[in-house]
Input
Amino acid sequence: MLQTRRGTLYTGITTDVERRCAEHEAGRGAKALRGKGPLVLMHWEWVGDHGDALRLEAAIKRLSALEKRRWLAARSSADAVR
Output
């Protein structure tokens, strides 16, 4: 999940987070992110297979902005406990 300069959250899937972030920063990624940098990587996680990743992405995209921030906060809290 990336955050734009204005605080908008963008969710996507990839097999290579570093490469994909670089593509987005260079303007070669999603059209929704072009000209909206700098971008900040807010969260990434390994998800089983491609189908699982697509389902998680779809579920996150259905959330409101506030719900996405709560989701992020819950993930960050869980990571801090580990």
In short: Helices lie at 17-25, 50-61, 65-81. The chain has a mean pLDDT of 91.
